[in-house]
Amino acid sequence: MELTMLKAKIHRATVTDANLDYEGSITIDTTLLEAAGILPYERVEVYNVTRGTRFATYAIEGPAGGGDIGVNGAAAHLAKRGDLVIVAAYAAMAPEEARRHVPSLVFVDGRNRIREVKASERPATVTAF
């Protein structure tokens, strides 16, 4: 059995572009991808804090240091410039690994510059009921 665990997230990034005519994906500043440990073409979930919408897509690299967060293709109907989003990546792992796993958390400012990168407070714990 494998569990799906949060691998990494970019927290409360600001959408800088929404392009319906692009074929799909979310463009993310390469600096943010590297800090989070999210690879190009990796599946990500995007949670729009502003609109309450959610969608899945894949990440592509934007220029490093530019602060780009661009929602592309059909998903551009679900996010507009200025919206706050959370970008999350997940990984499947065995329960033993999941218990030790600590996700990467990237916190950004209003211009999508890194404010803080940290690991979760603690690995997953199992509570007996």
The average pLDDT is: 94
Give the CA-based shape. Answer: globular
Main β-sheet, spatial strand arrangement = 2-6-3-5-4-7-1-8-9
Helix content: 10-25%
User: What is the annotated CATH architecture?
Assistant: Beta Barrel
Beta-strand share of residues: over 45%
Distance between the termini: 21 Å
The Rg value, from CA coordinates, equals 15 Å
- Poorly predicted runs are none
SS element count, helices = 2
User: How many strands in all?
Assistant: 9
Characterise the protein shown here.
- The chain is mainly beta.
- The protein has a single domain, classed as Barwin-like endoglucanases.
- Helices cover about 10% and strands about 45% of the residues.
- It is built from two helices and nine strands; from the N terminus they run E-E-E-H-E-E-E-E-H-E-E.
- The chain has helices at about 30-35, 95-100, and strands spanning about 5-15, 15-20, 25-30, 45-50, 55-60, 70, 85-95, 105-110, 115-120.
- Strands 2-6-3-5-4-7-1-8-9 form a nine-stranded mixed sheet.
- The protein is globular and about 45 Å long.
- The relative contact order is 0.31.
- The mean pLDDT is about 95.
